[in-house]
Amino acid sequence: MMTPPTLTMVSSHSPAPCWIPSQQHLDARAEQGKGHLLFLWSTQLREAAKTFCAQPDEERPLIPLIDAQTMLSDTIRRCHERFIIHISKHSDAYSKSCDYTEFIKTVQAIAGNALQSSDYASACGNLRLCIHEVHALLLSSENDDGSEPLLTIMDDLAMRVRCYMENVAEFADSPTAGKALNTIAQAANDKDMRQYEPLNSMLLISSALAFAQYDDKRMWAYDVIDNAITRNLEYSFNEESEESDEDDEDEDNEDTSEVDDETDFISDESLHVLQLFTLMNAYDLYVLSDDDAGREQLLSEYSESMALTLMNAANMIHEGHLRSAYMLAQGFLLSSRDMEDVDIDARHNGLLPDLLPHGWHTIMECCAEGLNDVGLLANVYRYYILSCNDRSDTHYVSKLRNLLRIYGGLSADEWHDVADGLARDYARNIIDRIKYQPEMTTKGGTQRHSGWRNPAYEKLIVDERLSDAALTYCVMVDYLLAIPFFGLGERSSISA
Questions:
Q1: pLDDT tens digit sequence for 266-277
Q2: 3-class SS string, 320-369
Q3: Res 351: pLDDT
Q4: Percent helix, strand and coil across the chain, each rounded to 5?
Q5: What's the number of CA atoms in the CB half-sphere (13 Å) around residue 232?
Q6: For residue 456, which of 89, 142, 391, 411 sits 20 to 30 Å off, Cα-Cα?
Q7: pTM for the whole thing?
């Protein structure tokens, strides 16, 4: 792996460049992925799975499926019989709650027994049953104030099943592994699961990634991910799909939850989650399988996907292709309707948590720093100042000044002229904010909210004593509100 050059263009008193935590994060992720930069798989899953394995002489017999069904149905029946109705003392309102302790303990007992079993296909049948029953009880307890423990056990169960599938992929023979994975895929593709638990549904689908590194089992992974692509990216959820004419040669491994009869409604929010993680799963599948052709085809077919483009940019950075990553991020921004919204979406997408404070522009900033490219980095800093809405970005005024003076070779007078030109650009931006943004008011009044102000622009005016810009700014926003912030000294005709 090529390591980008260390940034030397910022002053020693400046904060550490954002490139450093990003690079450390990417390096750590690649290490977890055995050299691959992956997003839904890591060696930690396999390590967790190994803790489930029992010694051959200590493995407990698997609970028969029919017995597990009886155990769960009995506890669910008793659970419903023990509903408690709470009547409010001050009104006729009431709420119901239920004690789920016995049910949760039963699920934990059945799941724990299955997770230590080497009877992989049958164990996955029991795990699918547990997932189904927890979700069914969740749906029937929709208005129950005390259903939080069910949500917790569902999250825990989905994660433990995901880890267990690493054992299935490593130790089961190919036919058994195929049956086991198909069973978990059926649980993930349950209509209600997809609608109300889309994150856990896709976590279970990511079990396919465990099979991608084994030549004799990779086909099962492709089957599951291809099916997810058909369901989530190509299928119209409001129309009944045509019957498939293809016959599955292996009926034992047929996914009985095919999309043929799927006419259920999937909410936009759930569909977004399903689509996002389907693309991420597909990307990681191709990377784990060393399938460069499949990865490139995916990137080409879904070039408008932010998640895929961001994953691709991260890989470029990881491989040292910094200029290509910069151009990719810049191109994605330029092709968008609203640059600010796209940056916000990238910041909160979960792929690189807490590492993209400015979304795609953070990617560009990291690349420019790694390239030691003063021009590219100055452009990014200018954008941060232009789009500033709070005081967190005011330090970019000093960073831009140091960058252009120390490493760009500008004299003090030349920098002042640049700052004066920037101020005119920022003034036009303030006009656009006032003109196009909805009216912002304080509570109970009509006074303009300070959200129209630009603290970085204010700092530029103060630092460079730009009196004309200060006057224009005060008039545009709110003279009485803005004037206390300026103490411009001898160049200014305005005094605080």
A1: 888 999 999 999
A2: CCHHHHHHHHHHHHHCCCCHHHHHHHHHCCCCCCCCCCCCHHHHHHHHHH
A3: 78
A4: 65, 0, 35
A5: 31
A6: 411
A7: 0.78
